[in-house]
Amino acid sequence: MSEISPERLAAVRAALAQILASPADGRATLSNPGRMSNTLQDLLPDAPMEKMALVAAADDRLAERLASLFAQGLPPDTALRIASESLAAHTALTPQSCEWVSREIAAALGYLPQRGTPSAWAPADPGRGAPAAPGAGFGGPAGPGPGFGAPRPVGATDITVVPPSQQPQAPFGQPQQPQAPFGQAQQPQAPFGQPPQQPGVPFGAGPQQPGGFGMPPQPPAPYGPPPGNLKPPGSRRSAKVWAAAATAAVAIVAVVLVFVLRSGPTPTPKSNPKLAKPTVSTYHVSSGPLSIALEGTHAWISQTAPDRLLELNASDGTQVRVQSDGLDFPWHITAGGGNVWIANDRKNPGFVTRVNATTGGITRISGTFNGIANPTAVAVQGSRVWVANLGAESKTGFTGYGSVTELDASSGTVVKSFPGAKSGITYPVALAVSGPFVWVVDSGYHGGLGGVTRIDSRDGSTLTKTGGGYGFERPSSIAVSGSRVWVLNDPYRGRLSVTEINASDASFVRLLSGLQYEFGSYVKYLQYRAEGIAAVGDRVWVADPAGGSDGHGAVTEIDARTGGLIRVLSGAPYNFYTPDAIVANSSQVWVSEFGPKNAPGWITVLRSFR
Asked: What is the β-pairing status of strands 508-512 and 539-544?
């Protein structure tokens, strides 16, 4: 849960006003998610949730939909309802969040009057003081039928309705709540992920006691007897008193807008001080490490300049074998089934190398007839191997559609190909396997925000989730553990973030972002990172090339169960220097270090971290 202060709400409105101040491309920016994301990095640097909603609206072309609806002469409340319902259907935002962002964009475009700030509601416009006929539109004079977004009436329908400009809005992401009767305190919203409080807590009641994780809060102890001099809200007199009390209460108490996305507990910013401090081992290598693979008692590291495949004992880092044949910029490697698989991507169209983990024997798989075209990532799924391909490349760049190739692990022959033109994959850069599912990270192409595609290996069906509604922004890496999938977003501008989704249906869980994670920013020369995030059991680790206390990089450890920060490892004794790839098993975490300029880099291994 994130609170929107009056200052942040004002910043959102100022950002929209500044975007629209450009007559050439202001409105176009509202429907361009990539441009919107880049612009809001500067205008809303400390409002990641608000930015996420606005980018999701741009991805769904909400501004264009609003323009079309208002051009048809629809009543404002109808136009807003249609637009917000469409946004909710296409994104992971809650319906209430969609109402909020629809209202703000409509007001910025001039279709509606601007609502007041949450802490001091603006007085009624003198020009709107007279009551109107029943069913007045949103933002206009109020009649017995309140407009879209007005508080829901309680009791009979003959109550006196306060005009919308005088009514406090419900916290963003929460359903509208009726005002408390005169003499009673307005009920606070329940914490994110917990059911709302029951109405009727007497005025002056003590603060509620927080419940355990996932449990409702304990009711506060009452202060004095409940008032008994109030008529039921069904009468006209009591409704007038109720409305007057609401207006007076809002003038005294600052109201906080709550921005809520899909259900899920908020991250806890504090780490556990009782955690064991990991032991640190450093293994220096002769050339730049690119990727790491772990299987059993061995670890493999791919290197470039020169290209090599280094095999080490995972227990002590001693060297087992060095191999240089059959490699050409070994961008990503994985191990499984007694083989090491390598995606080589220096020369168009690239190729895949299979190395026998026991004998070192090499098999090269290449050619468009095998569906291999500039491979970026490989993943093993039992007797199958999956390859992500950027696709054909010409003098002007890639065609804009990549593909995924399924290979038989024993023969290297193609089982099936998933062309991006049919599956919606444009720029695949990372893969992960979870049971029968293969997850493909699409980093987006030509300004797109990117997303993920889940392939069901049993029947070849695909499920794609894209856009700002999931917080996707140039996703580069993916990790799977249990029932959850984590996707690392590495935007060109702004800090890293992690999107968590359900493995069962690819539904949104939460976006992990904010200063508590100490995430750094994009590092240009690292380009895409297929192994920037790892997950095992109840832990998620993020390799952050520009994070940490010294800015040289860090590893962020996250609780997979709650999304809460456990700790940020940086500085001595870790001495991370632009950490790039990260892999983990139940007892070790391996991190590749790009190192200072003109240095060969090294591998850092963390053990005994529980």
From this structure: unpaired
